[in-house]
Amino acid sequence: MRDKAIRRFLGFFLLISAVLVVVAVLAVRNINRSADTSDWVNHTHEVILEAEGLRSALYAADGSWHTYMLTGDARDLSACRAALSNVDDLLEITEALTRNEPAQHEKFVQLRSLLGGRMEFIQQAVAARQGGKMETVRNLVSQDQAGTAMRDIEKKIDALKNEELGLLTQRDSASYLQAQATRCTVWTGVAVDMLLLGGVAWLIRDDIGARRRAVAALQVDNDRLEARVAERTAELVSANSRLTMENLERQWSNKALEHQLRYNHLIVDSISDLVIVVTKAMRISRLNPAVTHLTGLEAPALIDEPLSKIVRLLPAPGGADAPLLDPLAAALREGRDLRDQPASLEDVRGRGTKVRLNLFPLRDRDKVIGGVVTVHTGDAPGGAGR
Amino acid sequence: MKKYILIVDDEADIRALLLEFLAASGYRVAGATSAAEALQSVREDKPDLVITDLQLEEADGLQMVSRLKVALPDTPVILLTGVLFDHDVVHGVLNKKVDCYLEKTSSLKQILEAIQRLLGQPGPA
Fold first, then answer.
1. What is the dihedral of CA A257, A260, A266, A268, to 10 degrees?
2. Rounded Cα distance, A83 and A201, in Å
3. CB contact at 8 A, B75 and B48
4. In this predicted model, what pLDDT tens digit does every residue of B26-49 receive, in sequence order?
5. Cβ(B86)–Cβ(B103) under 8 Å?
6. B34-to-A308, B58, B79 alpha-carbon distances in Å
């Protein structure tokens, strides 16, 4: 987005610069043309001025030779020569001014020819007067009575001047048009640049607006994100707290069970009667220290051994000599207790001790999974052997 | 202000668990390993509630409760014990001597509920 805006700004500035350059080039070219035209106008004015000067100098020379003819005075002669010299000077200047204008120059050549003739005529008259040839002087003056030569010269000067005035009008008009063109170019350039600057201002405004909208949208997104993060953090804190509590609860439960188990073991182990846990197959699975104490057999030597290895039921007085352990197995299978049964406990040396035996089936959800045999030695009839 | 609870148990694991749980539940807690230490702590900084094990190394928990009740008759006491065989009978007897009797197999949540009930709180302080 930023790159696009920068490209657009650069494009506009390049356009503005291009317009400025074009306007400057056109303006300079028009100013140069205007300067040229102005030079031509000045030149035309100069030509007109010189033509008028020529006319005046010619009249002065014409008047002075007439005066000299009448007076013969040396001062009038001097004035006449000065006037003729002035005409020569003005002729040279006018020739120089019209040299680069072929049409004008042609007219000038004709004028110079006429003036040359006139000045030659004046000099003839002056020479005749100086020589005292009054008859010749009278003839020359009478020849000039009609003034034809002067009228021709004047017509040529008028024609030259009128032509120059026409050129002056034409060049003035060209100068005016160039000034107008320059003005128009400059104002057009300024207007186009203003339009382009207006475009740049609009672009900047649009860009700022877009950036503000983007910032606002970003802020909204940030707020939303922060809210979600806060919400999620709260959820995580809550979940962590819950997990911590659950973990503590689990540890507490384990410790409580360990404690209870140890306590139960202590109770069982502290009993002086023999406590033997048997499987449903009447094999020993657990026993308390009293068993080792009375039989001299360590637990590893008794675990998974048949109960009959250390204890057997004695036949009931007056009863048949039936298999001794069957009543225990049968009671366990049927889930019955057997209490206070006479039995014989055999130690590691094979010596028998008369004891009283109890059998309690172990039930787990009404299912017999084994049994507990307790053997009491205290009030059993003593004596070794069966 | 957080309620102050004193936990008396000679088993370090049990005591540490209870301390951590009750601290996480928003209580100010302290532990004591023996009856003597507990009684000294009670004298120095009166707790709002005492939780004690029944079987302590140097003295019976109930004896300690009797001495504690002399010093702080209004301070509620919770007695923790292992599982006893004749629950109903023992429960009746123990409840006459302490404000609440709980087996250690009770959950922490049950212990917390008992604390809140004895402190008259709807939840942790």
1. -90
2. 73
3. yes
4. 999 999 998 889 988 888 889 999
5. no
6. 48, 7, 14
B4 touches chain A (CB under 8 A): no
Helix ranges (DSSP H) in chain A:
2-71, 74-98, 102-130, 134-143, 148-270, 289-295, 299-302, 326-334
Q: Please, what is the Cα angle at B90 between B87 and B93, to 5 degrees? A: 150
A329, A330, A335, A338 alpha-carbon torsion, rounded to 10°:
-80
The verdict on B26 touching A (C-beta cutoff 8 Å) is no
β-bridge partners, A344:
A312, A354
Tens digit of each residue's pLDDT (9 = 90 or more) over A327-376: 888 898 889 999 999 999 999 998 999 999 999 999 888 888 999 999 99
Of A248, A255, A263, the CB nearest to B20: A248
Residue A64 burial (CB < 10 Å; 0-12/13-18/19+)?
A: buried
Q: Taking a contact as any Cβ pair under 8 Å apart, which residues of chain B between 46 and 105 contact chain A?
A: 82-83, 103-105
**Prediction ipTM score:** 0.86
CB count in 10 Å sphere of residue B2: 12
**Can you tell me the distance from the alpha carbon of A78 to that of A85, in angstroms, rounded to the nearest whole number?**
10
CA-based end-to-end distance of chain A: 108
What string of DSSP letters covers A189-209?
A: HHHHHHHHHHHHHHHHHHHHH
Which of A255, A257, A263 lies at the smallest CB-CB distance from B13?
Answer: A255
The two beta strands, A352-364 and A367-376, are antiparallel
* A240 touches B: beta carbon within 8 Å: no
CB B83 within 8 A of CB B105: yes
Band (pLDDT 50/70/90 cuts) for residue A116 is confident
A259 neighbourhood in chain B, CB within 8 Å: 11, 14, 82, 104
- Tokens matching residue A290: 């009293």
Residue A249: list chain B partners with CB under 8 A: 21, 107-109
Supply the DSSP string of A351-365, one letter for each residue. -EEEEEEEEEEEEET
Alpha-carbon span A74 to A153, nearest angstrom: 28
